[in-house]
Design brief:
Blueprint: H1 2-11, E1 22-23, E2 35-36, H2 47-55, H3 60-72, E3 80-82, E4 88-90, H4 98-115, H5 125-128, H6 138-142
Length: about 150
């Protein structure tokens, strides 16, 4: 990967990798056509360090978040096929009013960030980034009132 980066940098006018897509030399089953790109290449990393950074790039956390939403919110569940209706897709749990999905996702986001405790870290997401000093109770969120 470092050799690919060095060769690619030599072909650009500035020596930076802003608009250059690099094909991953190690695709896997989860990301078969993986292509990588630097968004903020200042040119201060050597090819080895840049290669290490690019090899860590993955969509795995995004896929995990989407999967958690699909599994924990029935409104976001994937459609079901029906044998009686010529294998047509049936969105059995889909809301009739799309704005309800936005509301459900907002509630899920608050629950996930402030109430749900991670198994590995034993903290909430808000605690990890220092937005909260501890787990927040559901009662505190529901009874919150903004005073002016």
């Amino acid at each position: 990967m470092a050799e690919i980066i060095a060769a690619t940098r030599s072909t650009t006018a500035t020596g930076r990798l802003f608009d250059v897509w690099i094909e991953s030399p190690f695709p896997d089953q989860a990301e078969p056509g993986k292509r990588l790109r630097f968004i903020t290449d200042l040119g201060d990393y050597d090819a080895g360090h840049a290669a290490n950074l690019l090899l860590k790039a993955t969509l795995w956390p995004v896929d995990t978040a989407f999967n958690q939403i699909r599994r924990r919110l029935s409104l976001c569940e994937r459609p079901v096929t029906s044998r009686r209706r010529a294998n047509r897709l049936w969105h059995i749990y889909a809301p009739y009013e799309p704005s309800m999905l936005i509301k459900a996702l907002t509630v899920f986001r608050v629950w996930h960030n402030y109430i749900w405790i991670g198994e590995k870290t034993n903290t909430t997401a808000a605690e990890k980034i220092k937005l909260a000093q501890g787990q927040i109770r559901i009662q505190d969120i529901l009874s919150f009132s903004k005073t002016v």
